[in-house]
Design goal:
Blueprint: H1 2-7, H2 13-16, E1 31-32, H3 44-49, E2 65-69, H4 74-85, E3 89-94, E4 106-110, H5 116-123, E5 129-132, H6 138-145, E6 154-159, E7 174-177, E8 182-183, H7 191-203, E9 210-215, E10 217-219, H8 229-236, E11 241-244, E12 251-252, E13 254-256, H9 257-269, E14 274-278, H10 286-296, E15 302-305, E16 325-328, H11 331-337, H12 345-360, H13 365-368, H14 370-373, H15 381-392
Helix pairs in contact: 4-9, 6-7, 10-12
Length: 394
């Protein structure tokens, strides 16, 4: 389920077992990312007349300007506030389907990215950076490149789902995965292949500096596909036992909205042509995640640690359930941008839990978390209870 929640795709139960292998596509050409790793940031003078030349933006404005496309989601709200606090003029653009929080120095415009004319009009005389949270199709990369006269640089959210094994299939485990690792082939078939197509289009040109960020399992208030609900709902329902497959030792890279927003802010400050991982400093195990959420909810439960894969009907599964570890290496971000994480999972997750409790109070959780609800029945306690009774039978 870990990758399913990242990609929005659902594999058959027999194939997925809540695991990372969502797209069982046949191996095609293998793609590497090393050509775009380590590209240095573009200094101001160079951006105007050197190796990587950005468009000429009026220098009349004292403050730098940022345009956040699809910026009303969980990460966009944090980034908008952080940029505003550091002196940027910020415009947040969205379709207006979510409540809009507008900190100081932040404006909102309502538009659909499919309307090129409206997008160009919203950019006005141009911006220093366009941050794209909703680039999901190769045509979106083409759209961004067509804005080179209005945007001086790009920061685009990609996904860690792009990484592949030696046969070109999506990875289900890796430790300290660097940006130089293989990816799935670019294409239109899957979420991951479309993300790779976007990456290659933007990184394959040197006119518009573009930073692509491969984020892990993003979490934070406002997440309509919140993985954390897996444990939060169990606490609210008074469950006293949780079953964890793989003995709770699975690690699937988490990414706090605060750490991701900080990385994006730094990328906006230092334009360049690069791809960077985006993740928390330490990827917690599922056991550690459950304990952190239990503590935030002031709820205790016994942990039944089951060796191997989830049992029938997915008992013991979780949104982070992979056979081993899927962990990103953040060295490149530290080297390229001087990035330093500003929080850990244990420190950041309580605000997500608090938001989930308040947002679902008196409401059907499926209305609040439609992305998560789209993955079917996730809280079949009858199967779980039957499994537990079997442990003590006889």
């Amino acid at each position: 389920m870990a990758a399913e929640l990242a990609t929005g795709q659902l594999a058959p139960r027999r194939e997925r077992a809540y695991g990372l292998r969502v797209d069982l596509e046949q191996p095609r050409e293998l793609v590497r990312s090393q050509d775009f790793v380590g590209s240095r940031a573009v200094p101001e003078a160079e951006a105007h007349g050197g190796h990587v030349q950005g468009p000429q933006i009026s220098s009349d404005r004292m403050a730098r300007s940022a345009f956040l496309l699809g910026g009303t989601g969980k990460t966009g709200r944090v980034l908008a506030q952080r940029l505003g606090e550091t002196g940027w003029d910020v415009i947040v653009a969205s379709r207006g389907q979510r409540p809009v929080e507008k900190p100081n120095a932040v404006r909102h415009v309502k538009l659909d990215r499919g309307d090129d004319k409206a997008l160009r009009a919203a950019l006005g005389e141009g911006v220093d950076v366009l941050v794209d949270f909703v680039a999901f199709e190769p045509k979106h990369a083409e759209q961004l490149l067509a804005l080179r006269g209005l945007a001086r640089s790009l920061v685009v959210v990609s996904s860690a789902a792009v990484y592949a094994d030696e046969e070109g299939r999506p990875l289900d485990q890796a430790v300290r995965l660097s940006e130089r690792a293989r990816t799935v082939a670019a294409g239109m078939d899957t979420y991951a292949s479309r993300k790779v197509a976007i990456e290659r289009a933007l990184l394959g040109q040197d006119v518009l500096p573009s930073t692509l960020i491969r984020a892990g399992a993003i979490y934070g208030p406002g997440d309509t596909g919140s993985r954390e609900w897996h444990f939060v709902k169990r606490a609210l329902d008074g469950r006293r036992v949780v079953v964890l497959a793989h003995r709770g030792e699975s690690r699937f890279q988490t990414t706090s909205v605060h750490n991701l927003a900080e990385l994006m802010r730094l990328a906006a400050e230092r334009p360049g042509r690069r791809v960077l991982n985006g993740g928390d400093p330490e990827a917690p195990t599922v056991l550690e995640i459950g304990r952190a959420i239990g503590a935030a909810m002031n709820h205790e439960w016994a942990e039944v640690l089951v060796a191997g894969s989830p049992r029938d009907a997915g008992v013991g599964d979780s949104p982070w359930g992979v056979p081993g570890s899927f962990v990103l290496d953040m060295t490149e971000a530290e080297f390229e941008l001087g990035y330093r994480p500003i929080t850990t999972y244990q420190k950041a997750v309580p605000e997500t839990c608090e938001w989930l409790v308040e947002a679902t109070r008196g409401r059907d959780w499926r209305e609040v978390l439609p992305v998560l609800a789209g993955h079917g029945e996730l809280f079949d306690y009858a199967d779980e209870d039957e499994f537990l009774r079997g442990l003590t039978a006889g």
